Amino acid sequence: MINYPNHQPLLKLLSIGWAIAIASVCQAQSYLTRDISIKGGPNQRIGDLLSAVSQDQGFYFSYNSNAIAADSLVNVPNYRGPLINFLGRMLGRSYEFKETPGYVIIRYAPGTMKLAFRVEKERGRPLVIEGQVSDASNGMGVPFASIYDRQALVSTLSGPTGDFKLSIKRPGETIWLTVSKEKYRDTTLALLPPVQVGSKHKGRRYWLFLGDGSGGGLEGSAFGRFFTSSKQRIQRINLGGFFAYSSYQVSLTPGLSSQGLFNSQVVNQVSLNVLGGHTAGVNGVEIAGGFNINQQRTRYFQAAGLFNLVGNDMEGVQLAGISNIVMQKASGLQLAGVSSHASKTKGVQFSGVFNVAEDVDGMQIAGVVNTGGNVKGVQLALVNVADSSDYPIGMINLVKNGEKSVTAAVDESSMAQLAFRSGGRILYGLLGIGYYLSDSPMRYALEAGVGATALRTGAFILQAEVVSRASTDFKADIEQRLSLRLLPRVSFNQHWGFIAGPTITYTYRDKENGSLNPISGWKWYHNKDAGRALHIGMMGGVSYRW
Predict the structure, then answer these.
(1) How remote is the C-alpha of 312 from its chain's centroid?
(2) Which residue, 42, 359, 382, 478, has fewest beta-carbon neighbours within 10 Å?
(3) Of 345, 341, 350, 374, residue with least CA distance to 362
(4) Are the CB atoms for 514 and 528 separated by under 8 Å?
């Protein structure tokens, strides 16, 4: 006789646990089995009916607008009962209904599939499942169906005749084999191991991305389509917005990874790509020798030797040797050797050549060009382009709702100049050319600077600017002048006005290269031996702005 130990304390704990679990299940009743009440009536919009149920029950409906016309009118009788029955009566038998936390998913799936397969398992080797997916109505093979195990994160696509082969490395646990195909109902079956007393495997987390199924983010761009294989596009269509979480993945190239074809449906905490990788997203750290491609969101840190491409939002720090591309919003820092792109950016874009964003809340810094739509912050580059930007810092600033002007003026040194000013409501840039009317040894000059509008009231504007001037004879001599100008402007009408105001100028050059141009105005400091001068003068002219 076998003597069993006393398990009464353990049984009590198990009983309490079962009671808590049952109570939790009762509280977390399935959305589809909940009882709802609908007030009937003729010509009711499907969209209004779904919205009423959504608000009453506290969840959302997710569906493709191409499959369900929300504006369609239906005649609905008074109804009280389970939600799934109501949806079936209203939409018909061609639709499938699923649940995910916070959402009821409605899919157009008029077809059904059947699955025939056999399993091979040799000791010490992966379990191999071979079979065929076929249409239940006519027996024809279903090509390009996705066959996958959500727990192991392995998947494959059926061939032209519906045949498939799937290898699973952890056959000691229950395998939940799911078959998905656009316009077909999902088919799921469980393959149980011979003995399964318990399992230490933790449940994997999943999430639903509410998109329209068109791939309008990553696959909506030519660059994204180039780096997305046809198998990955078919996988996205079959699985819709379904994504899973994993702790890590390693890829050599997008097709050769530790998660195989399922890689583009998995969000990883750590992602390492030797040459390049294509994943659903990153919720931690991703590093690549060549490139990173994320179908959806990227958070915290991403670095690549060549480029990063994100189909949705980026939050954190993104570094690339050549380019960062975010199809939606970038929050944080984008740093690239050549360019950074985002639909919207909140934070800093810093690139060696150019930045592009439709809306900017923060700062754009580029070696050559910044392009933005509505800019709430600072743009710093040689050329800044925007619909609205109050603080562009550059030589040329093409702001749609800003100001541009051309000024013809003369200063105390008898230099006649033509200057182009462009910018926003507050900051602007300046480029100008000049010619000395006096007998100066260096007749020609080039000016560049930045300025700010300090006061604006009616026809009067007060501007302050810092300008650097280089004067030359186009031979060997160059003279540098740095000026601070305070220029009041009075307008005659909408376009024309005149400017006149004081200037403070510091002139410097090496005396070894020749003499200075004559110093005009009131000399505050003048050292002929050192070739330095600080002097005060005046400037005035006529300006045309638009």
Answers:
(1) 5
(2) 42
(3) 345
(4) no
